[in-house]
Write a structure and sequence with these properties.
With about 475 residues, the chain is α/β, with parallel strands linked by helices. It has two domains: about 5-250 and about 455-480, 3-Layer(aba) Sandwich (Aldehyde Dehydrogenase, Chain A, domain 1); about 255-435, Aldehyde Dehydrogenase, Chain A, domain 2 (3-Layer(aba) Sandwich). It has 14 helices and 25 strands. The protein has helices spanning about 40-55, 60-80, 80-90, 95-115, 155-165, 180-190, 205-215, 230-240, 265-275, 295-310, 330-345, 395-405, 420-430, 470; strands at about 5, 5-10, 10-15, 20-25, 30-35, 120-125, 130-140, 140-145, 170-175, 200, 220-225, 245-250, 255-260, 285-295, 350, 355, 365, 370, 390-395, 410, 410-415, 435, 455, 455-460, 470-480. The strands form seven sheets. The chain has a seven-stranded mixed sheet with strand order 15-18-19-14-13-21-22, sandwiched between helices. A six-stranded mixed sheet has the order 10-9-8-11-12-24, sandwiched between helices. The longest helix has 22 residues, at about 95-115. It is globular, with a radius of gyration of 23 Å.
């Protein structure tokens, strides 16, 4: 029989109202497990448990929180290959990418363990004689955590790790497509010594459980990573209630990679291919627009095409696979629809663009490179979230900068150039939260703040010491002598 996995509520593993099958996108015959779907009542019970646990956990010692998180980090690290295999099996990214993501989760948890010991404040002289003032940070309270399917252990780790380090309690809803990695993360943290109710897992419908998070009076804050439409609906719901919840919303991207004619072509090609097509393009920081100067355009396109022909598309767990499947049939349908839209708009499929039938039934798609793209086209403006990239031809650097910024998104951007002048100017004038020079637009070190501008993000940054801005509240206290 297929193994079943329950939700964690108040320290107990419980079945839900039904179960959801976790299907391998590399081989749809492979069922990883059946994962409980929580009801509204169970989600509310998890919130109640978190509130009951908060009074003690919020004043627990920093060393206690540090030690629990460190134990969890060490177990995650020691099981990296096992957990990476599970991650790749349920999400579809290649095994090296899956193991790498697990390693990143361990690093993030360890970093946040250290942050538990580094919570700082200020002591200042008051303006009234004989008084002084203290500025301290306290936990926000109960945090609803909603995570996406494309990074099923790293994103939960950096949200939950930060929440726990600062003394918050958590109710966590992972993406339905990838519950396995989330379940293992919660199990590890639970066994590391978290008191009952501090961390609760409620798997299931985003619409149903999300409504509990945004409406329940005992939820103090919601952190979400996902699409722009869902993020906007969460924002509206959070501010419409009596409590006006704190929000942290990480949403989409339409990230440009600018290629100047002085760039090292080999570096530019690797930045482009890695940023746009690895992980099947299913990264919010993926390079979906190549903004290329006219004088290097044809050489760049030909070099990218040659590089794409060397890549092997296949089962995520096979040794020689470079790019695995997209995550499910729905995402494959979206990708194929956008490829058709691009053709109808007059763009040219220079490479790829076809679904692949391989030895195992899965959601395989050739990396797709469009040329002849104008900035006004939908494939240049809307997030596709698949292995699809558009090349936009420009005259010079000034036009490249205008095109790069011509988007409603502002998460990540990059430029390939050997000009210090252009690189410096681009870093200052690119309208993105993350800017890279001669590097792939995807990825970020775990100790640095993550987030964007415009429609890409709303609220304080994630990761690093900047996580404190969301997960803590600043308090000012006065004391007078006698």
């Amino acid at each position: 029989m297929t193994k079943r996995y329950g939700n964690l509520i108040n320290g107990e593993w419980v079945d839900g109202e039904s179960f959801n099958m976790n299907v391998n996108p590399s081989d749809t015959r492979d069922i990883i497990g059946e994962y409980a779907r929580a009801s509204t009542a169970e989600a509310e019970a998890a919130v109640t448990a978190a509130r009951a646990a908060f009074s003690a956990w919020s004043v627990s010692t920093p060393l206690m929180r540090h030690d629990i998180l460190m134990r969890a980090s060490k177990e995650i690290s020691s099981r990296a290959e096992e957990l990476g295999h599970l991650l790749s099996r349920e999400e579809g990214k290649t095994l090296p990418e899956g193991i790498g993501e697990v390693g990143r989760a361990a690093q993030v948890i360890a970093f946040m363990a250290g942050e538990a010991l580094r919570i700082s404040g200020e002591r200042l002289a008051g303006l009234v004689p004989g008084s002084d003032a203290e500025v301290t940070r306290e936990p926000v309270g109960i945090v609803g955590v909603i995570t996406p399917w494309n990074f099923p252990i790293a994103i939960p780790a950096w949200k939950i790790g930060a929440a726990l380090a600062y003394g918050n309690c958590v109710v966590f809803k992972p993406a339905e497509l990838v519950p396995g990695s989330a379940w293992e993360l919660v199990s590890i943290l639970h066994r590391a010594g978290l008191p009952a109710g501090v961390l609760n897992l409620v798997m299931g419908s985003g619409r149903q459980i999300g409504a509990v998070f945004t409406s329940h009076p005992e939820i103090d804050a919601v952190t979400f990573t996902g699409s722009v439409p869902t993020g906007r609906s969460i924002a509206k719901a959070c501010v419409s209630g009596a409590t006006m919840k704190r929000m942290q919303l990480e949403m989409g991207g339409k990230n440009p990679l600018v290629i100047l004619d002085d760039a090292d072509l080999d570096v530019a090609v690797e930045c482009a291919v890695n940023g746009a097509f690895y992980s099947a393009g299913q990264r919010c920081t993926a390079s979906s627009r190549f903004v290329v100067m006219d004088s290097i355009h044809d050489r760049f396109v030909q070099a990218v095409d040659r590089r794409l022909r060397t890549l092997r598309i296949g089962h995520a767990l096979e040794k020689d696979t470079d790019i695995g499947p997209v995550v499910d049939q729905r995402q494959l349908d979206i990708d194929m629809q956008y490829i058709q839209v691009g053709k109808q708009e007059g763009a040219v499929v220079h490479s790829g663009g076809e679904r692949l039938d391989l030895s195992t039934p899965g959601f395989y798609l050739q990396p797709t490179l469009f040329t002849g793209v104008q900035s006004s086209m939908r494939i240049a403006r809307e997030e596709i979230f698949g292995p699809v990239a558009a090349v936009i031809r420009v005259r010079d650097y000034d036009e490249a900068l205008v095109v790069a910024n011509d988007t409603n998104f502002g998460l990540s951007s990059g430029i390939c150039t050997t000009s210090l002048k252009c690189a410096t100017h681009f870093k200052r004038h690119s309208q993105a939260g993350i800017v890279k020079v001669n590097q792939s637009t995807s990825g970020l070190d775990f100790h640095l703040p993550f987030g964007g501008r415009k429609s890409s993000s709303y609220g304080p940054r994630e990761q690093g010491r900047y996580a404190a801005e969301f997960y803590t509240i600043v308090k000012t206290s006065y004391t007078s002598a006698g």
